[in-house]
Design brief:
alpha+beta; Ribosomal Protein L9, domain 1; Ribosomal Protein L9, domain 2
Length: about 200
């Protein structure tokens, strides 16, 4: 018997397929479980009309996607980001940023259908917008960066904070020739200079 499947059945067919099955299988399993109906002439006509309407709807969806893709293919985006002294930007450029820029241009695109790896450096890139299973748009974009100045070493920063007069005095002190100090001569005490016996004159009789 002929059955119109109302849903996918593994090993048998897909939804809206007309299949031939044994009468017992159709009446005892497919029809009672709602997986299929008898493919009568009236049921076939209904199915044909549904498929026609579905085809028209799907064709319109695809045509709309192709029209949007054509517009997106003519778009070019640019981003200017802050970056460290090594050129790595703070944060990244991803699907969210692409969607926001497209929004500014009047394109309401869900970030979930934008395929792109996060960008962290300057350069030229391309984002893919998947509008339909058979239609995709390519949106080129450029990333430029504004790099921070290299950090000043702590020592240099400390010097810059000193008053100009203090820095000049230090420089003069470094350039001045070293002065040799005169050797220190220890004075011998008077009582130690003469022998003890000479210090006292012999008593005269």
């Amino acid at each position: 018997m002929e059955i119109i499947l109302k849903e996918d059945v593994i090993g048998l067919g897909y939804k809206n397929d007309i299949v031939n099955v044994k009468a017992g299988y159709g009446r005892n399993y497919l029809i009672p479980t709602g997986k299929g109906v008898i493919a009568s002439e009236s049921a076939k006509k209904v199915l044909a009309e549904e498929l026609k309407q579905k085809a028209v709807k799907l064709a319109k969806i695809k045509a709309d996607a192709e029209a949007l893709a054509e517009k997106l293919n003519a778009v070019s985006l640019s981003f200017n980001a802050k970056a460290s002294s090594t050129g790595v930007i703070y944060g990244s450029i991803g699907s969210l940023q692409i969607a926001e820029e497209l929004q500014k241009l009047g394109f309401d695109i869900d970030r979930k259908i934008i395929a792109i790896k996060d960008v962290k450096a300057a350069g030229e890139y391309v984002a893919t917008v998947k509008l339909h299973k058979e239609v995709a748009a390519q949106v080129p974009f450029t990333v430029t960066v504004e790099m921070d100045k290299p950090e000043t070493p702590a020592e240099e920063a400390a010097v810059e904070k000193k008053p100009r007069k203090a820095r000049k005095e230090e420089a003069d002190a470094e350039e001045a020739p070293a002065v040799e100090e005169a050797p220190i001569v220890e004075e011998t005490p008077a009582e130690e200079a003469a022998p003890a016996e000479e210090a006292e004159a012999p008593a005269q009789e």
